[in-house]
Amino acid sequence: MNNDTICALATANGVGALGIIRVSGNDALSVVQKSFPAKKLEKQKSHTIHYGYFVDGEEAIDEVMLSIFLAPKSFTTENSVEIAFHGSPHIGKRILETLIKNGARMAKAGEFTLRAFINGRIDLSQAEAIADVIASENEASRKVAINQLKGGITNEISFLRTDLLNFVSLIELELDFAEEDVEFADRSALIQLLNKIELKLNSLIESFQYGNAIKNGTAVAIIGKPNAGKSTLLNALLKEERAIVSNIAGTTRDTIEEVLHIKGHAFRLIDTAGLRETMDEIEAIGVKKAKEKVENANILVYLADAGTEDFSEDIEMIESLLREDLKLIICATKIDEVSPSAYEKVEDIFRNKISHDFDFITISAVENQNIQDLKNELSSYVEQLKASENNVVITNQRHFEALQKSLDAVHKVKEAISFQISTELLAYELRNALEHLGEISGEVTNDEVLGNIFSKFCIGK
């Protein structure tokens, strides 16, 4: 199938000023030539642009500009043509139909990038980075994806893998001379290398929590009793009337989710139903969903009305929702309605009763008091996840799992050396470590993995 000439719309569907159709394959120039009589394309230089009409037989479909990229100096390393046309969906459809008539076929999802990978222009982690660049929704995720596109993670791994490969070769050589009982691989030097690899793998694995926050956003559950000010706070953070605000308890029956960007990071804010015992069946479902959202949240922002006399229910609810990896922020709300001494007392109560570490903030969402303090606290959570000494951040679940498998294999190699296990088993564990490291860049892979990765791409990329 790699010998086929493929074509697809590279720009978004819908009306626009311009649209672009990509064509790639050994016969790309001849396929396009059948509908572009203005110039002899095979006589043109690479990276040149040409004006003319794209035709279907005698009928002119549109006035276009063709960009020519000759192999191997193209994204796919094949002959490629990009056709820029007036952005009518109908015109794009007609051009694609004509190209197929001329001998091309429609590209599958991610097939252009797959060809770039198969032809050696990019490795697998860079291919995945292309999808991450396209999907980036904030500055932090863009920077991380661009760094990976430039080969960041591959560069980190390749040096370690090369050194490890040298030791594997020596161990394999020992197997060939098993009867002579000789050692070609210095075991102490191998231990030093394994310690170095272990440190690097741990550093990359630890960066995944930060990377996941960058890529998918940090989930923030806004929780509290009815009328604690949850919806008012959501509106204040978003600076728009996103949630209904009412003095009637139980107004919010379902969860409301919105994305807030703070200092280049995305936060998925989840406004939930007020937590209380209720006979209302619909409200009870909302309370259940609220608790489920907390289970998947990174940060719990618990709102407590500063004017409340008894916080025993709040304390009981907080304790029931806590987990070791959950960041807790307790906000005393409606401080515009009470004296400073009142909300100072609130903090003392929670400090004495809550077993989990937490940050305490006083706010008035109605008066917009200290809302920025809460935003700063959310932002600092993400910044603290970042390991300052590590420039490469893992954002991909597949990479994370491959790194963990590599680390497990390294541990087994070290155990094999310490227990003086046979050379055959040592070679086996070393090959495992090499294989898992190679999975990241695609040096070791299979069709199922490739199919899963590239099926998530859009057609035309």
Taking the alpha carbons of the first and last residues, their distance comes to: 17 Å
Total DSSP helices: 16
Q: How can the largest sheet be summarized?
A: 6 strands, mixed
Roughly what is the average pLDDT, rounded to an integer? 82
Question: Which percent range fits the helix content?
Answer: 40-55%
- Outline: flat
* Physical arrangement of strands within the biggest beta sheet: 3-4-5-2-1-6
Cofactor: K(+)
Function: Exhibits a very high intrinsic GTPase hydrolysis rate. Involved in the addition of a carboxymethylaminomethyl (cmnm) group at the wobble position (U34) of certain tRNAs, forming tRNA-cmnm(5)s(2)U34.
Binding site for Mg(2+): 231, 252
Coiled coil: 364-391
Task: Please characterize this protein's 3D structure.
With 461 residues, the chain is an alpha/beta fold. It is 47% helix and 17% strand. The protein contains 16 helices and 12 strands. Homodimer. Heterotetramer of two MnmE and two MnmG subunits. InterPro entries: G_TrmE (IPR031168), GTP-bd (IPR006073), GTP-bd_TrmE_N (IPR018948), GTPase_MnmE (IPR004520), MnmE_dom2 (IPR027368), MnmE_helical (IPR025867), P-loop_NTPase (IPR027417), Small_GTP-bd (IPR005225). This is tRNA modification GTPase MnmE. K(+) binds at residues 227, 246, 248, 251.
